[in-house]
């Protein structure tokens, strides 16, 4: 039966029908010149062997299934965290469409971002005209308070000088002379999205603190007792930043969240379209120079930014996506030390609850082996939490992780008896991970949505923690930081562990003698 | 058919129960179970006991006659494993309503039995009496009799409404029901000289299956197991067995001893927990079967099998010994026999610092004394307060217990392992003991315990806050109410912090008078950090160092 208007079938069902199946089989037999299925199977099995793994790890030029994105994605993410700010990507428009869809698919929110839409002639003659027209158009059409400019590879390859171009644009009257147009060079061929986040945040702070590209006097720091907080590129930004604000409030700390995109990625549906929502005010961004210290939750997202801030005589502290009890302890104690505020009883009780929950469920996580991949800081935080739970983060892989990251990971492994057989893999991709999962199997895989292919291929159950999560909704609303966040991560891990036990015992009449109600 | 009070009196006359035998007539009349103390935390009721004892019968429909409470809370809470039917997991209840309470629930019960017969056609239906229908006078014996006649299938009344007594009494009443209505009502297709019954074994996590292959190898047939992975027909035929092994004597001793009286089936009390106990039980089975006419060569084969299995198990356990050196265990068991676990744990080099004997017979206690010496802590009362005190006092490294005591252990920051009915692992036999060791090792070395025993790290060094806390303490000593409301940095914990959730013990430990912080604090342990700070403040440095 083909499609029938009385009862329309979804694609997942329709093509299972006989005529479609036959059509596909005929196409394969008559036109595709397929290999012998036995040969295909043989190669498939071979690709699971240690021998193949060796060849796989010897790859030099080809990257297969990379677990990273490009700099401008991080740039857009950071720029959206400022009040009424329009991210403007100078370069080809296709790239920009990707960033918008990527962020929207994860956060289920529209992403406001424009491009200078460079074409072939711009590539030949330079993108100045596109930038000038682009700034003028977006300024007039979308009325932002600030336009944050980043670049794609195209603009970088031809060597467009943003500083000079923006100056010239203003002279040509595209935007008022005193209008805020911070910028950052963010070519995709260097680093990853975490680098782009870093460059953009630094660009924006530099703009406000260091005299707005020569158009205003540099700010003089008058130290106060507030602290700046930077979340870094974080798929859980909505839940996390709200949780962090709650913690600050409990501790009665004066703070500025830099690049606070928790509202713009979670606008209410009440009939009003908010192109911009919330975010760090431009005033706060400027005044952040006076803060006592700046705390970054993700070291590898803020290396340049923190160095810049340190240059303005602030204390800077970087964490590695702190998850779990000890990491959160350290975070809170650092806050307490810097601000001289005590950690309130309410937080101590939350801590006790997390410890309690971990103890209640410890037997189920203990001794389980995990493979983790993702951004370097997230990998570190997750691995540390797993060690705390008595689990073994056997393979930890970060495509955008560096040699320094690897050393840091190995030091973490060395600090725990559960880290004995664990290893960090910097610069490797998910095809490497596939070999690892086949040759040294683990119980669970932690990663983003793309891990589902590995899950299907290797049979390793996937726990979705990371960015992007496209095929599950609303995870970004739940924090993973703080003790409450640790609880969320713990529950996510446990849910999968129990689902697995149920799955493995659910076969009727065969294994369901252990398909139990009480776990 | 005997009345319920008569049956109960009969159960209390149990000659096989050593404890009962040592009592005076008056005491015996009062019953062998302790009277429940109103206002105290208590265990399950007689209905619960009957239900859990019989629920492992797998091809039987278990129908609970009563309001939703009884079945609603007990549906599928037994970790037994079935090799066949899953009917036993289906939740059947008459779900009595107000109308039934007013007009009687017998008709509803009858119709429920009818519907089960029509829709499921099980081997048998067990009908459980509960408090409400028992009080309004529903006669389930008569309903079952009528339904049996009408539908031509066994409909067995299990007359153990909750109010008649404890869970343990319920176990026994369930056994009485089997004796009265089931055992001896069928005949096996054939018999062998190697047929045995296993009584009081529930196949939790399928652990009997870890032993069964050994019996199979010896050619010994489990004619029936009461009630783990049990089949109705097997139990009906169980009176043809040559010998019986009694596993949980506290629950089903009446079944074993009455089967001995009625059918001449000798029994012994044994256990498959631990290497030596497993070997012992196998030898006993062989010995009894030989006495009843099995060829004597059975013993040789049994000895050979034991030697082989023991060597394997000892080798496997060897690797745990260095990990267990100096580790101390508290053992709080419900059904599982304490002494047999004690032996198993000692085999692996663990030190037993205390064990519960609530459900142990006098004989069991003697064995425990033999095993761990005269000074062993034997706990009669299993109140949370008692366990908590024991964990703190004995400074045990791990507690093995049922799920109910789990949280007491965790709040006392002691590792804990589930060895009762809700556990996820099978510990029986030579394989099971190795699994148990593995689980103990995991529990002992889980990093969470370190975390649990520590307070928040900021409490360790925050001298400023300590000073504040001490100041607050003084304020509170003057006016506890206002002191507590000042909402300073942190409220001081006057009751021992780790006892949160166990108000009973908090009050017992410190008395209701919270105006004496110093006293309560000096009694406290290192876990209460606010107390500790004050503690060190009140003590000379030498004492602090000694701590």
TrEMBL record, chain A:
GO terms for molecular function: ATP binding; iron-sulfur cluster binding; metal ion binding; nitrogenase activity. Its EC number is 1.18.6.1. InterPro entries: ChlB/BchB/BchZ, Nase/OxRdtase_comp1, Nase_comp1_CS, Nase_Mo-Fe_CF_bsu, Nase_Mo-Fe_CF_bsu_N. CDD domains: Nitrogenase_MoFe_beta. SUPFAM superfamilies: Helical backbone' metal receptor. Keywords: ATP-binding, Iron, Iron-sulfur, Metal-binding, Nitrogen fixation, Nucleotide-binding, Oxidoreductase. Its cofactor is [8Fe-7S] cluster. It is an enzyme of class 1 (oxidoreductase). PROSITE patterns: NITROGENASE_1_1, NITROGENASE_1_2. Residues 1-56 form the Nitrogenase molybdenum-iron protein beta chain N-terminal domain. It catalyses: N2 + 8 reduced [2Fe-2S]-[ferredoxin] + 16 ATP + 16 H2O = H2 + 8 oxidized [2Fe-2S]-[ferredoxin] + 2 NH4(+) + 16 ADP + 16 phosphate + 6 H(+). Pfam families: DUF3364 (PF11844), Oxidored_nitro (PF00148). The keyword Cell membrane does not apply. Tetramer of two alpha and two beta chains. Forms complex with the iron protein (nitrogenase component 2). This molybdenum-iron protein is part of the nitrogenase complex that catalyzes the key enzymatic reactions in nitrogen fixation. Belongs to the NifD/NifK/NifE/NifN family. This is Nitrogenase molybdenum-iron protein beta chain. It comes from Bradyrhizobium hipponense. The lineage of its organism: Bacteria, Pseudomonadati, Pseudomonadota, Alphaproteobacteria, Hyphomicrobiales.
TrEMBL record, chain B:
The keyword Signal does not apply. One of its GO terms (biological process) is protein-containing complex assembly. CDD domains: Nitrogenase_NifE_I (cd01968). Keywords: Nitrogen fixation. It comes from the Bacteria. GO terms for molecular function: nitrogenase activity. Residues 45-444 form the Nitrogenase/oxidoreductase component domain. Pathway: Cofactor biosynthesis; Fe-Mo cofactor biosynthesis. Coiled coil: none annotated. InterPro entries: Nase/OxRdtase_comp1, Nase_comp1_CS, NifE, NifE-like. This protein may play a role in the biosynthesis of the prosthetic group of nitrogenase (FeMo cofactor). Belongs to the NifD/NifK/NifE/NifN family. This is Nitrogenase iron-molybdenum cofactor biosynthesis protein NifE.
